[in-house]
Design brief:
Length: about 230
């Protein structure tokens, strides 16, 4: 795999998520995970390197490989159920997943250094709808050592439809950061206009208003009593 040039690494966004991330040592010095601050690095089309040929088994027993997602934009998120920043960013991942599915974007989690029962309970309790590979030893992140390694828990890689790494976030991401990384790729590969996507937050904010209107209607239609005047 080609090594990254200094010019590529110089393209660092000032898009940061909440401070956090967990440091873990998975083996030798080259496999050490560092604390992540949510900073992102973007790789222009000519500077992107291919992802390694890796895959694994989901909690449901399905075999998936990164190559299965060629032709689509892939958000690859490394996480663990015991990781506080992972729990904090989960609503962000869920929201972006729901909004960008129609724009050529798929999500895949990689659960590492975790108990499988606890990890499965996490996905069920959180209602996570995209699949995750169970990788207790952390072999999938290690396979990225010569490219763009996801060195923190959590970390997120944005992979182009051609199977090349377009962006990396070290630490927890935010809604604005992740959508800002995805939008240029959606446009670049002709998947549509990101501005036309459904907004989960707008839908959720509208629900209480609808409920309140329904409650008011019910109240006006209810039989009046002497106490009502």
């Amino acid at each position: 795999m080609p090594l990254l040039s200094a010019a590529v690494l110089a393209t660092v966004l000032a898009l940061t998520g909440c401070a956090g991330g967990t440091e873990i040592q998975t083996g030798g010095e080259e496999d050490r995970f560092i604390s992540g601050d949510g900073s992102a690095t973007v790789f222009e089309a000519g500077d992107r390197v291919p992802v390694p040929e890796v895959g694994g088994t989901t909690f449901e027993g399905d075999e998936l490989a990164l190559a299965d997602y060629e032709g689509r934009i892939l958000v690859l998120n490394v996480w663990a159920s015991w990781c506080g920043p992972c729990r904090a960013e989960q609503p962000v991942l869920d929201e972006v997943f729901a909004e960008y599915g129609g724009l050529g974007v798929d999500f895949l989690g990689v659960n590492i250094k975790d108990n499988e029962t606890a990890a499965l309970a996490y996905t069920e309790n959180k209602g996570v709808e995209y699949p995750s590979l169970y990788d207790q030893p952390g072999e999938i992140p290690q396979a990225f050592r010569e490219t763009v390694p996801p060195r923190a828990i959590p970390s997120t890689l944005v992979i182009s439809p051609e199977g090349e790494i377009a962006a990396r976030v070290i630490g927890p991401t935010t809604y604005g950061q992740l959508t800002g990384l995805l939008d240029p790729l959606v446009v670049e590969y002709g998947f549509g206009d990101p501005e036309d996507r459904p907004r989960v937050s707008e839908q959720e904010s509208a629900e209480p208003e609808d409920t309140e209107e329904a409650d008011d209607a019910d109240a006006s239609d209810a039989p009046r009593t002497e106490a009502d005047g």
